[in-house]
Amino acid sequence: MNTRHAAAAATAVALGLTLAACSESGDNTDSSASDVSVSHIHGLGLDPSDQRLYAATHEGIYTPDSQGKPKPVGDSNDDFMGFTVAGDKTFYASGHPTSRGEDGPGNKGLIKSTDAGQTWKSLSLSGKSDFHALDYAHGTVYGYDATNGLLRTSKDGATWKYGAELQALDIAVSPQDPDLVLATTAEGVARSTDGGKTFAGGAPLWVSSS
Known about the structure:
Layout: H1 3-23, H2 31-34, E1 41-47, E2 52-57, E3 60-64, E4 70-73, E5 79-87, E6 90-96, E7 110-113, E8 121-124, E9 131-137, E10 140-145, E11 150-154, E12 161-165, E13 170-173, E14 181-185, E15 188-192
């Protein structure tokens, strides 16, 4: 699926999720829609194995069913914040439990699914970090750790290298260049040419002392 088609699919499912969520407060008699409650969409990704779209939300992971309606994936309705697709049925995510979610630490750290979101395994930083943005490229997990206000990178999802300290809303890594990382900030887009160790533009520049 090319970028244009992927964007169109993402827009369609996002709209469907939003409409379904809004329908709960109205007089909608469609029970399939009223069963869906979604307040925030934090991330979108296409599974390369089947080009299925997945949306990480405040109430779990959703994907369109055969009718194009959003359906939950797996049995977790936790708040999925950072989310990225790394490969066939392989996702990385972060976040924290909701009031309806499972008992556990307040921050999920980095978690991984190898069955398209049906089940998740904790990899690292459980209870310590909440990644609000994740990207996977060049065999590396890039994560914006909102709890500690810095970029981290990891090859195995368990051991991490510290990057720049900044206040980011989202991050994106160049598919061609592992050193080129963009971060969306309140002041604009910040750019790194050293894999996230430093950023220029957008927010003021900070360099990690680690």
